[in-house]
Amino acid sequence: MQIKAFKHAKRVMQPSLVVNNILKRRSQSNNFVPDSTKSMQPLLEVPSTKRSSSKANKTFIHQDAYKLLVGSWNVGGITPPEQLNIDEWLDTQNHMVDIYVLGFQEIVPLNARNVLGSRNSRISLQWNSLIGAALNKTAYKLERAEQAEAGEPQKVYPLKEHKSVDAKESQHFQCIISKQMVGIYITVWIRTDLCHYIRHPSVSCVGSGIMGCLGNKGSVSVRFCLHETSFCFVCSHLASGGKEGNEKHRNADAAEILLRTKFPLGPLHNLPSKILDHDQVVWFGDLNYRIYLPEATTRSLVEKRQWSTLLDNDQLKAELNEGHVFEGWQEEAIEFAPTYKYNPNSDDYYDSNQNRKGKRMRSPAWCDRIIWFGKGLKQNQYSRGESRLSDHRPVRAIFTAQVMAYDI
Question: What are residue 362's phi and psi, to 5 degrees?
Fold first, then answer.
């Protein structure tokens, strides 16, 4: 049970009044930040007639299946270049899904200024611009292909607006929620025609870093309902450290996030408030779990691509199997190389010079993970991207989600 994990939670010092004020202002906000207030107006108003709240008008309930992609990337505090190509990570050449949920860690360097100072949204806006351009560029290409096949005249739409003018709504995407806490950032993009069926979007931030509460580590979670099914997505950055015993700090962070994450109950007090109350939950991020093997052994097995032997000694799988954390959660089989730690702009794992003082060895590990909980989710893909931007490789998972909906 999850309460078992809570008993392992670390005891933290009571922070000063100043730290409490920082948390209230920056880490405990439940206000979502839309890409554009104007574009979110349908979500903020009274429900439309397409989803009347009167059960008398709901004649039949059925299941719809939607595809969603969840991606995670620790970008190491590096500002994204303007021409950064993220198509391979988003897998847009092979799959276009209905919902994209993307989480980042360390979008800014985790220094004192960024942890304690005011939030700098410039970098998160840059990431959102890249994502919008990538998704809608691909949607635009698909639309042109369909028009050519049908013999229709092709039209040009300005990509920078991230929206359709006369095009089919179903082929374009808009950001409905985005939220940043220090270096953790989550952004949700949904097919435009589905936005009418999104209700009660909200976010909850939990800081578990310095003094057990600041936002250099922790989570940003998003909640919304699609038709009659509730979703929760948890983007987190857990405690770091490659020493034996550090996994307990990561377990404690996860328990704190489960305990402290809280969403509004809604106008009728009938909405899920805690993470595990939702119908379908996906947790992802730099979970920082390492491998229980000597460094030389780990490197040798990585070179031989002996993933099964390495995974037999993976901290997260061991802690999960022993019931210390994430009991009842699922993870698809990992069939890709460890995502951490790489030399900058290289395909080589980090290997410090033994003769240089102050340099620590970092064994390869699957720090970046995607796990899930609840009924109605089926994971179809679990893979990694190959961008060399940071010392981590991005990961992605594609799911099919069964959603309950009413016929009106």
Answer: -125, 110
Q: Are 223 and 232 in contact (CB under 8 A)?
A: yes
Domain segments of the chain: what residues? 2-39+62-347+364-407
DSSP bridge pairs for 395: 72, 384
Using one digit for the tens of pLDDT, what is the confidence trace for 116-147?
988 888 999 999 999 999 999 865 555 555 55
Among the listed ranges 3-7, 61-65, 286-290, 399-403, which one has the minimum average pLDDT value? 3-7
CB neighbour class for 80 (10 Å; exposed up to 12, middle 13-18, buried from 19) = middle
| Best CA proximity match to 74, nearest among 114, 107, 109, 105 | 105
Residue with tokens 């970098």: 123
Name the CATH superfamily housing domain 2-39+62-347+364-407.
Answer: Endonuclease/exonuclease/phosphatase (3.60.10.10)
**pLDDT tens digits, one per residue of 231-267:** 999 999 999 999 989 999 999 999 999 999 999 998 8
Q: What six digits make up the tokens of 367?
A: 């720090």
Q: Are 107 and 124 in contact (CB under 8 A)?
A: yes
Contact 236, 283 (CB under 8 A): yes
Distance between alpha carbon 248 and the CA centroid of its chain, in Å?
22
d(CA 176, CA 131): 13
Question: Averaged over 30-44, what is the pLDDT?
Answer: 40
The residue count of the chain comes to 408
- What average pLDDT does range 342-349 have in this prediction? 93
Structural contact between residues 183 and 123, judged by C-beta atoms closer than 8 angstroms? no
* Pair of tokens at residue 304: 């031989």
**CB of 385 within 8 A of CB of 347?**
no
Q: How far apart are CA 372 and CA 378, in angstroms?
A: 9
